[in-house]
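User: For a teaching handout, I'd like to show students what a predicted protein-ligand complex looks like in token form. I'll give you the sequence and the SMILES for S-adenosylmethionine. Please answer with just the structure.
Assistant: Understood, here is the input followed by the structure.
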Amino acid sequence: MTAPLGLVALPVWLPAGRPAGPAPASPAGGEPASGHVPVLRAEVLAALAPRDGGIYLDATFGGGGYAEAILSAAACTVFAIDRDPEAIARGAALAARFPGRLHLAQGRFGDVLAGALAPDGLLAGHGVRALDGVAFDLGVSSFQLDDPARGFSFRTDGPLDMRMDRAGPTASDLVNRLGERELADLLHEFGEERAARRIARAIVAARAEAPIETTARLAGIIRAVLPPDRSGIDPATRSFQALRIRVNDELGEIERGLEAAAALLAPGGRLVVVAFHSLEDRLVKRFMLAASGRAPSPSRHDPRGLLVREAPRFHLLGGALLRPGTAEVAANPRARSGRLRAMERLVRPVEAGSPERAGRGAAHPGGAAAGEGAT
Ligand SMILES: C[S@@+](CC[C@H](N)C(=O)[O-])C[C@H]1O[C@@H](n2cnc3c(N)ncnc32)[C@H](O)[C@@H]1O
């Protein structure tokens, strides 16, 4: 069952007495170590349950909030990836605080994880063959959103860029080059925008006068088509989300990244994912249900995409999707749409047709049966 926003479905991995509240302050106290307030940090940490000597991967380093929490929780090693060179550059300070324990890599998690065991790959290069836990915190960081020069936000004017790694076509390129039909499909598919056709028509008319190169101009065009409704949500929100997803191939990255991460987990290793909108979360949910043998997925061996139920490689942790509590949302409004899902690699994969499960068991009462009917 999905917990309504603001209500916390208390997961079974959360140690008793630990409030599912806002992220703890940085070890220095006061302000968090970064301009990005990590979402569901305590819950991510509880789900990963880092242990001394363990090897963990933060697939979306951002401001380093998760990596810092993992490094502080146990005498472990953390590999961290971010496709944004600025995030990796900022991470040098955290690496210096934990000498030899934080390894940073710039790149897309889909590529970096798929190649991690190649001789010069992220893990094999350090003599590592498997991971004890992987965390994904999908989407963009506050560093990216709040910098007008990155072009992610309609709240401040800036170049219409939106590239996390500053490579490939920008949002401006798409908006000025795609045909009206393609634009409408993009806004509908990645923004779930019902007024996609009207907005695409307005964009095509506006760009005939002058190329659309700034966030403010695009937001103005959308607002002229779609007046604000009673929800208080800016009418440009869904279109900006759609462009960002397409510019960065975010959904393709999630599919590749989850598959590669799951393959790198040692028995008992945990995969924890925080998603922020339904398109992301749908992929995460589908992947986890299929990997835990609870839902059929397209066969990897059948070119027609025949649906098969995989023999479970994982079991789901927690009885339900976890969302931030009211205190966290009040302290950090950007947390409001966060949703966490987690699963654990089985120690012995279940034979097809066998009801047997074997996770980390008693030490982590994630519960073999937990997650039945998870939303
Ligand atoms: C929500 S932020 C992560 C914040 C982080 N957990 C923290 O506590 O500071 C997401 C980060 O993931 C990065 N990112 C998004 N997609 C990525 C991908 N496919 N590969 C690598 N990094 C990615 C973004 O550049 C951004 O810095």
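For the handout, you might add this sentence: The chain has two domains: 41-142+250-363, 166-247.
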